[in-house]
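Below is a typical protein record.
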Amino acid sequence: MDKQTIAELIELGLPGSQVSVSGDDGRHFHASIQYDGFVGKTKVQQHQMVYKTLGDHMREAIHALSIETSTGE
């Protein structure tokens, strides 16, 4: 798994989001996601939305993902 693929999967699952993914070892990543759809959601709900976009990749290809979420507000 690479940073670009992770970003693309998140952007596909959260249309209109702005995503930045970092990480150099191919297993541990950090994602910053700005998405208006996060408005009114708790941090847990926001993170669940991100995990849903990655599906089985979270169990198979991604060992660790730290997530930072924000809205456009």
In short: The longest helix spans residues 43-54. The chain has a mean pLDDT of 93. The two ends are 31 Å apart (CA to CA).
